[in-house]
Every structure is written in C-alpha cells, then in structure tokens.
Inverse folding.
C-alpha cells in the first residue's frame, strides 16, 4: 500500500524520495530530519538536501518546539494546487492521505510559512474551523496582500463575512490602504480605524490563541504563526487599547 501512495505522488511530479519524505512527515507530524529519514528509509543527508525545495513548493513547513528545528507536512489539500490535469486522481488520493495524517495534539509554539502557497495551509484551517461571531483583530500596514492570491483570498473574505466575524482593523492611513479596504470590504462588515503611529511592512492579526505575522517584500513574503493563549491575550489587550484611543480622537 505504501508503494501505491508513492507511485501516485510520483505521478503528480514528486520524486520517489520526495514522496517518501512527504508520507513519513505526514504520518509523524512535527519531526526532526533524523526521524523523517528513519521513517522514510533515507539518509539524513538526502533528507537535508530535499527539504528546502519541498518547503518552497509548499509540501513541508518548518516549525519550532523550544530550540528544536522540526518539519511537518502541510495538509494533503496542498496537492490540489500542483496540477489541474490530473485533479480527479488527486481527489481520490487526498482522502486516503488524510486518513494517515498525524493526530498529535502537541502543537508547536511557532510555525513558519515560507511563501504564499505554503500559507494556504493556515487559511484553509481557519476557514474550516472559524466559528460565527469570533474575533479577528488586524494591524495592517496597508500593503496589497489581497492581489497576491486574489481568487483564494476572495474565498477567505467570503467565509469571514458569512460567519459574521467581529473583524476590526487598525490600518495605516495612506492611499494604498484606503484602496485596499475598498476592494476587500464592499459590504462594510470590516470595521476599521486609521493610525500613522508606526512605519512597517508587517501585518499582524490575532485569532483565538494565534498571533500571525505577515511580512511582505518584493521577493520574500512569509508568515510566522505564534500559538500561545497568554501571548494572544496580551496582543488583544494592546489592540483594544489603541482601538479605543483612536475612537476617542474622532
């Protein structure tokens, strides 16, 4: 059965070794290079050589647990974006792979998404798990993240609107930011206030016990997610403090 999964992954463009690493990582959850190599029956050097490319293509993500550098497979849905030609075969493969996905409850403190394709894993989880009326608090530098992956982000925005989330945004007051808000907020469901108290290309948002930091540069866009109830609570406190101060100015 293992060889069948490897063959199907090869059919969508993975090498045999990449397929073995992906399956091993999917089964293990967050794991070290040594653990992945042992599970995949590959040398540690081989795993080291292949991991950067697999991260870049969105198949793996780097996570940290304390000082340990670990790697984890992104959800099998990422495979759908690799090809349209054999999407029917992918639809058959994904449920089988999901049945093998690790159910480890020990979620790492920090997860790093190296590029917009890898970031989809976080957004897919949000869209599946978000509840009606939940808070979604945002610090926005006003950069145009929307057009970075427009069709996908349209779905993300529709989910937030459908679930009537409490979406508050503190945004830099500039022309680019105002234009962005017109594009993403046609129904007026996102409440926002402008501030020029900082100068940064970083967006940050808080949802549940996760603080997400999105850095946007011309050739390097990545996202770091910090999962910590205490840290998220502190960020929410600071957000509402500034939100109220901006409201009193108007």
């Amino acid at each position: 059965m293992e060889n069948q999964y490897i063959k199907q992954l090869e059919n969508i463009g993975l090498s045999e070794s990449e397929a073995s690493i992906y399956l091993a990582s999917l089964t293990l959850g967050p794991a070290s290079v040594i653990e992945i190599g042992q599970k995949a029956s590959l040398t540690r050097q081989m795993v080291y050589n292949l991991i950067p490319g697999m991260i870049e293509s969105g198949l793996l993500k780097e996570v940290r647990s304390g000082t340990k550098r670990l790697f984890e497979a992104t959800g099998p849905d990422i495979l759908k974006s690799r090809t349209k030609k054999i999407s029917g075969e992918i639809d058959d493969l994904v449920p089988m792979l999901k049945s093998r996905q690790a159910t480890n409850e020990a979620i790492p403190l920090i997860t790093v998404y190296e590029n917009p394709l890898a970031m989809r894993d976080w957004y897919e989880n949000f869209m599946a798990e978000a509840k009606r009326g939940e808070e979604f608090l945002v610090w926005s530098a006003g950069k145009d993240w929307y057009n970075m992956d427009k069709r996908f982000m349209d779905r993300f925005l529709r989910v937030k609107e459908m679930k009537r989330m409490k979406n508050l945004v503190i945004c830099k007051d500039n022309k680019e930011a105002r234009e962005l808000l017109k594009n993403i907020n046609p129904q007026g469901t996102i409440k926002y206030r402008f501030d020029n108290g900082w100068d940064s290309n970083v967006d940050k948002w808080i949802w549940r016990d996760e603080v997400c930091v999105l850095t946007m540069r011309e050739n390097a866009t990545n996202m770091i997610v910090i999962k910590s109830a205490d840290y998220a609570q502190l960020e929410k406190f600071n957000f509402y403090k500034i939100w109220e101060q901006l409201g009193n100015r108007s």
